[in-house]
Amino acid sequence: MRNPAPIILSLILAAAAAALIIRSPKAPPPPAAPPAEVAAETASKEEAAKTGAAGESSKPPSGDSGVVFVKTDASVAEAPAKTWPQEQSDIPADPKAVFGKLPNGMRYLIYPNAEPPGRVSLRMHIAAGSLMEADDQRGLAHFLEHMVFNGSKNFTPDELIPRMQRLGIAFGAHVNAYTSFDETVYMLDLPDLSKETMDLGFTVMRDFGDGAKLDIEEIDKERGVILSEKTSRDSVGYRLMEQQFEELLPSSLVTKRFPIGIEDVISKAPRERFVDFYTRYYTPERMTFVVVGDIKPEEIEAKIKESFSSLMNPQEPGKNPALGEIPNVEGIKPAVFSDKEVPATELSLVSVRPFSPVADTRTRRLSLLPLGIAHAAIGRRFERIAKQDGSAIAKGSASRDELFNYAELGSFDVTVTDDRWQEALPILEKEYRRALEFGFTDAEIAEAKANILNSYQQAVKTAPSRKSEGLATGIARSINDGSVFSTPETNLEIIEKGLDTITPETCHAAFREFWADRGLHLVLTTKVEPENARGVLQSIYEESRSEKVEAPEQKGAAAFGYTEFGAAGTVKSQKNVEDLGLTQAVLSNGVRLNFKQTDFEKGSIRLLARIGSGKLTQPKDTPGLDLFASSVFDAGGLGKHSVDDLQQILAGKNVGTGFAISDDVFTLSGRTTPEDLELQLQLMCAQLTDPGYRDEAMAQFKKAVPMIFQQLKHSPAGAQAGMDAWLHGGDSRFGVPDEAKLSSYTLEDAKKWLTPALTKDYLELSIVGDFDESTLLPLVLKTFGALPARAEEKPALAAARKVTVPKSPAEKTFTYESKIPQGTAMVIWKTDGLRGNTKLFRRLNLLGEILTDRLRKEIREKLGAAYSPNAGANGSEGLEGFGFLAAECVGKAEDTKRLADIAAELGATLAKDGTDDDELERARKPLQAQLEKSKRDNTYWLGTVMAQSQEDKERLDLIRGRDADYASITTKDLDEVAKKYLTEKSVLKVLIHPDPAAKEGE
């Protein structure tokens, strides 16, 4: 369940990057193997979003370029790896890591890591993926990843998941897997180190290796699940990616081996084709087992030897395929891809050339550094151009990637404003040529250097609190690329020496070496292919090349202009909450302050300011004003500094903010370090007292509007936004504006609404992390404490908290225009609202887990009709009476009605017959494991515990009783809640699918 604001706002950010949040700019891609936990950050977010036990990583990336390549570090080695990368490198491996290899060839890496304590993460990496399939096995590498969960040597098909649940291991959250072109990785996070849990984990991983039963009955049952997953992952972006691969790598096996496979093989492949792949490619010589956690390496090493030494290699193991030739391109080769559903028009210059594996050495890492910095400078240039009045581009970037140790890709990209690609193409060409001819300025290189150095310095400082699951996933994802698992200190030492030699001249030379005298693909991706598009592309490009370009302008950096906010405040009152380890204070100006010192994230501090009443105060009949206001607020910078200025001023600093508007609050959040804490506080206060509201921010937003509505028109997001508006009873604050309305707002509209709240309303600031109280308080008093007086409390706004929820029972259909035959069935049971009903929602959370498990068994496993059906409780803490328990199933468009009916019936059965003790415990144990883990999570303490602990006087008592309350819940409690809410009279059925009429009219 999502509110419309996050849906549309995500489109703003993803489709057009219109809101340039004030933050530390991202460093250029690190030339070294990045710290494993950094490499895993994106991966862990992707995996967390999956609710099934299997996934495939051939999804297109977010769309930063018109040419949509798979952005992955994975590579196809020439042969199964026999050694560790450090054995061919002058870079030492982390001395804490234990590297080993069994006589059968299976490698293992053990890394002791005590965060979180008492837990361990297991990863089994198989150096085999879809590229190893034969023509009649297309999709079976991914299919096999599912099948190892469906019956093995030690577990029947119905036994494994319940066994894990009883030990606190949640299906999807703690056990997962993914398949890519050249690797399959199984992931298991164990909630404790008991013998029973550890034995189960190792037995499961061993069974994955060679114990899969592959019973034909189970294969046949799973075919529908795979096809449902294929449907759920289908998108215009995915289809365009396939076309682009075919154009750029026409002779390559990559274009014919997308991991999800083809329907004919998925539907019909006989068992022997599964067995063939499994026995020839799931071999110990292709396996690497990774164990990271609060463990003793010698004990784990003994357990690995005991568990895996008997694995056998086949007499004829599978070989790695030849991936095919990469054609040489002469000059400029235009290509056009079109689909009326693409969210935005894109232009790209793409270089594709052969690439061979290179050992990870100091020389290799440093050789990539100048080009990475040069590409970062190009990205900043495109940002500045995009902000110019009337610019034909919305954003741009430059990048270099390696694809499976086979191809080296260079991409120079822009997103086009309003389909004005004829105007945008000369911009793309000239910036490409400007860099080739003149290189880069001192300021550009200094900014990029500062950011990359800072990223490595922070990796060193935060290393003691790295999380085991992130480390384990990062290590697994780096196995095929041959990078050394070196320490953050070693990585920093290498980079520091390299940066000392980096100059604008070395970056220019690296840019020319990579880009000059290369044949290039000129790619246009747009809604409708123009007549003679390739010829026009060629003509415009050649005409642009005939025009002179000037050297880039040198620009100096200014000093940050916000260091004084008036006389420092004082502490009016202070209370130490001993049992929770936090402090609450009221400052002399009325600002509320909560803070808690922790060591959960070394060298990191998180801040959250809750201000005013958010959408409760949104003017009447202004749908989408919150989206407009938050975007122009972020993108407007400060009165003294534009966003571009701030990126230069703050280069190398760990400061930044994000502004958001929620149902009943405005929030300003940030993350910093002890060294930059004062600057972070100054930045947040500057945003409250002197936001920029620049014209460039409004221009950027208006560029994004057509892209937003293009996605709303052609994706489920538009239908979901309509559903959310309906659930809020058509209240304009939660409505979907039309394009003209959203484009009509002015900076004055945003300023008039936000200014009273930012300058006068109730403000509660919470801070958690690695700080010293004696340092923190004086800094807060001279910043937030120096602000003008704030309101002592928030107004009740009782009327504004009420929305009219649709009458039930009801069924409603929401459609959008798309050729993708995907549908979503939502079954929504109305409940009392979340506001003031925390204990009720704990019980609804458990009911959601139980219903999810029943949906999995019935809809995924029995019917194969949806890949990841799920259920959960949701509601608003700001609105009265707004709460739901909802089930969601994504499947074929024509199945939405059937899926909704099944989900509703499962809910009715739960209400009628109730649950039992085993089902309750299988839902509660994994949840309790997550609750225990949250106690060492700064985001939990900041957002859940402290953020409004002075506004909500009962909050801390509810937190104190959380664990005991969950433990006290009985089947009787759940049965009573189910009977009250999961009734036919409370049901709202929502069917979301493409509009058949629109499809017929194509």
From TrEMBL:
A GO MF term: metalloendopeptidase activity
Where is the stretch described as Disordered?
24-67
Ranges where the Peptidase M16 C-terminal domain occurs: 271-451, 746-926
Needs which cofactor?
A: Zn(2+)
The UniProt entry, under SUPFAM superfamilies, shows: LuxS/MPP-like metallohydrolase
Q: Which residues form the signal peptide?
A: 1-27
User: What GO biological process terms does the UniProt entry carry, in alphabetical order?
Assistant: proteolysis
Q: Where is the composition biased (Low complexity)?
A: 50-59
Q: Which residues form the Peptidase M16 N-terminal domain?
A: 111-231
Kindly indicate whether the keyword Cell division belongs to this entry. Answer: no
Kindly state which keywords UniProt assigns to this record, in alphabetical order: Hydrolase, Metal-binding, Metalloprotease, Protease, Signal, Zinc
Family assignment? Belongs to the peptidase M16 family.
Give the protein name, as stated in the record: Insulinase family protein
